[in-house]
Specification:
The protein contains 2 helices and 2 strands. By secondary structure, the protein is mainly alpha-helical. The chain has a two-stranded antiparallel sheet with strand order 1-2.
C-alpha cells in the first residue's frame, strides 16, 4: 500500500492485520514494515528487486515517457 503519511500507513497496516486475522492469516512481523519511498528513502526489496523512488529529469524523462 502507498500512503501519504506515516499515520495513514500505520492505520492501513492495522486494518490489513484486522482483515487478515478475520481470514485466519497473519503477516510476519519480521518482514512487514513501513518504509519511506521518497527520494533518499530506504526503499525495500521485493522478489529480488530493490524498490525505491528515483528522480528522473530532463532528457531521460522524455525518453522514458516515449518508451512507455
Amino acid at each position: 500500500m502507498m500512503c501519504r503519511s506515516r499515520e495513514q500507513a500505520e492505520a492501513a497496516l492495522a486494518r490489513l492485520r484486522s482483515v487478515l486475522a478475520e481470514l485466519g492469516v497473519e503477516s510476519k512481523e519480521a518482514t512487514t514494515r513501513i518504509v519511506h519511498l521518497e527520494v533518499g528513502g530506504s526503499g525495500f526489496d521485493f522478489l529480488g528487486f530493490h524498490q525505491r523512488s528515483v528522480w528522473v529529469t530532463g532528457r531521460r524523462d522524455s525518453t522514458l515517457r516515449h518508451k512507455v
